[in-house]
Amino acid sequence: MLRVMAGTARGVPLKSVPDMDTRPILDRLKKSLFSILENGGYIHEARVMDCYAGTGTMGIEALSRGAAHCTFVEKRGDAVKLLRENLAKTRLEERADVRQDTAERVLKNLAVREAGTYTLIVYDPPFEFSREAPHRPALEAELVLAGKLLIPEGWLALRTEKAAPVPEPPGLVLARHWTDGTHAVCFFAHAQAGTANPPAESAQA
Questions:
Q1: DSSP characters for 14-82?
Q2: Is the full-model pTM beyond 0.70?
Q3: What local confidence, expressed as pLDDT, does residue 154 receive?
Q4: Which among 125, 137, 186, 203 would be 20 to 30 A from 179, CA to CA?
Q5: Is residue 10 part of a domain?
Q6: How far apart are CA 70 and CA 119, in angstroms?
Q7: Domain span at residue 158?
Q8: Rounded to the nearest 10 degrees, what angle do helices 103-113 and 136-149 cross at?
Q9: Quick one: which of 10, 16, 72, 7 has its CA closest to 37?
Q10: Is the separation of the CB atoms in 139 and 103 below 8 Å?
Q11: Residue 177 phi, psi dihedral angles, 5° rounding
């Protein structure tokens, strides 16, 4: 059962889509990831985007832990319906903006109107999108668009498989490649910002 791990909505169970086309993050991995982000001060009062949100597990966790706002991006109608229900159950809907559309279209739109306004983007596309070579140009193009939304000191956290090649989106630099079992998270920063303060390892990682 999925649930909120910490914060104002701690322990609230979350609904998920009952099929294999979405991959909700496991509680153990989510706990470690958010320990890294929270220890680095990247959650409190942050403006967050949960891209490929599914039913909103990661964005809701960020809101529960004190993020100021989260934009959820998910194209599946059934997932969006459950995402809205999860937001209502956790009483976090007032700080949420749900966009039912493809990540590419939303990122292109927001890159013009909301460039440089997000503190953290949690990016969780299907594993084959980050693993298989034919998809790499599209993945890296989306990451470039996402990078335009970040504040200069912001972070983009991409969840992939441990064995997947690390993307090389122009304008972004890999600050940390954190692994947990068969999973990995690539932390990207603006190239001009450097990697002076990358997200640090947590006690659980």
A1: E---SSSSS-PPPHHHHHHHHHHHHHTT-STT-EEEEET-TTTHHHHHHHHTT-SEEEEEE--HHHHHH
A2: yes
A3: 93
A4: 137
A5: no
A6: 10
A7: 31-193
A8: 30
A9: 7
A10: no
A11: -120, 100
Among 124, 137, 134, smallest CA distance to 168 is for 137
17 part of a folded domain: no
pLDDT along the chain (205 residues), means of 10: 91 83 73 88 95 95 97 96 97 97 95 92 87 84 94 93 90 91 90 65 44
Predicted local distance difference test score (pLDDT) of residue 49: 97
User: At how many degrees (to 10) do helices 57-64 and 77-90 cross?
Assistant: 20
Query: How many residues in total does the chain contain?
Result: 205
Phi, psi torsion values for 10, nearest 5 degrees: -55, 130
Predicted pLDDT at 54:
93
- The 8-class DSSP code of residue 205 comes to -
> Would you say 156 and 166 are in contact if contact means Cβ atoms under 8 Å apart?
no
Phi (first) and psi of residue 146, to 5 degrees: -60, -40
